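Hi support team,

I'm filing this because I wasn't sure whether my run with copper (II) ion finished correctly. The job status page said complete, but I'd like someone to confirm that the output block is well-formed before I use it downstream. Pasting the exact inputs I used:
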Amino acid sequence: MKIPASLPASVLGMTLAAAFLAAPAAARADMPTFEVVAENGRFTPDTIEVPANTRFRLQLTNRNVGPEEFETSTPFKELVVGPGVSRTTIFPPLKPGTYPFFGEFHPETAKGRFVAK
Ligand SMILES: [Cu+2]
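And here is everything the job wrote out:
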């Protein structure tokens, strides 16, 4: 069987593509992740200490009977999660400080804060 002359180039291309795909996966694995559970109209924990100046991932699990919307105004983020569902979102690096969050569907009780240190 004759090997096409283009094969080495395409194999190299695939190797490079694989390397580029692998790099973000490694970055994701290294990113700190914080879990919040929405239940009975509240968030647990309600205070989440995060490293300052570092991107991080929030994983929200909704154990309410209905949907919840996790929201922050600074930085602006909204994450709608159906009952029984888990979703993640990435936060940009935060300067040291306190950043409130709330559940838009339970605004009186679902309140919390990120504390970036
Ligand atoms: Cu909203």
